[in-house]
Amino acid sequence: MDKNKLAHEIVEAGRRIYQSGFVAANDGNISVRIDTEHVLITPSGVSKGFMEADALLLVNLTSGETIEGQGRPSTESAMHFDIYRHRPDVQAIVHAHPPTATGFAVAGIPLDELALPELIVTMGTIPLAPYATPGTEALPETLRPFYKEHDAILLANHGAVTMGQSLTEALFKMESVEMCAKILFTARMLGRVQELSDEQVDRLVDARSFYGLKGAHPGKKIIEQRRNKEEKS
Asked: How far is CA 174 from the centre of its chain?
């Protein structure tokens, strides 16, 4: 893949998440897989809204060694590398702190209510991974149970991470996570989240093939998960 082109795409994605208020100061991190052995990733301590393409680091996915660039890779590089190792289909990752979605993460609430057709079709649900100290090896361990069925995950008390087969796809999923969180928050403030029926959810999951959507998705298991949740409550 064209490393220079991807570097400029990362810079543009960084500006978008900064301008959208999904990150502040030096928060967040973005990476793109260059090939089977290398990843282009944002450096630590740099604002995503004011990056230059030559600030990005080319890192060996296996060893974590910096091949090109100055400075240290993002403090969350272990999370990025772990996702790439377990998800060969993933080509790009965005980690940010979108305010409403992160509010759900701080409150310990996953975005798993089956109320929004767009979310059900594209991502199914957005689970909440248990808390782990940011920047440590413990963080990816909390995420692994969700890799197989989810391209977007809330990190307890921390933020969100999204994955895609392109950087644009990963970025759009981050935007969708925040939009879904805003809508569900508004519905909760109005007093009720009206979920779709099992039959309606079933049809939406089937629609994925019509739209040609790829990526991880829990499929019709989300109906069973809802029933189990209702039984426990």
From this structure: 6
Can you tell me the mean pLDDT for 169-181?
98
In this predicted structure, what is the pLDDT of residue 232? 83
Query: What is the predicted pLDDT for the residue at 230?
Result: 86
Q: How far is CA 208 from CA 90, 163, 205, in A?
A: 18, 18, 6
| Sign of the CA dihedral running 141, 145, 150, 155 | negative
Mean pLDDT confidence for 166-186: 98
Q: How far apart are CA 218 and CA 233, in angstroms?
A: 22
β-pair type (152-155, 128-129):
parallel
With 0-12 / 13-18 / 19 or more C-beta atoms within 10 angstroms meaning exposed / middle / buried, residue 193 is: middle
**With the CA atoms of 201, 206, 212 and 213 taken in that order, what torsion angle do they form, in degrees rounded to the nearest 10?**
40
Which residues are identified as catalytic?
A: 76
CA 128 to chain centre: 11
What pTM was estimated for this model as a whole? 0.96
Write the DSSP symbol of residue 131: P
For residue 233, pLDDT over 80 is answered with: no
Q: Enter the tokens of residue 187.
A: 């519905």
Amino acid at 135: G
Q: What is the mean pLDDT of residues 38-63?
A: 96
Name the DSSP letter for residue 42. P
Which tokens hold the place of 77?
Answer: 């590089």
CB atoms under 10 Å from CB of 112, counted, come to 19
CA distance 44 to 149: 29
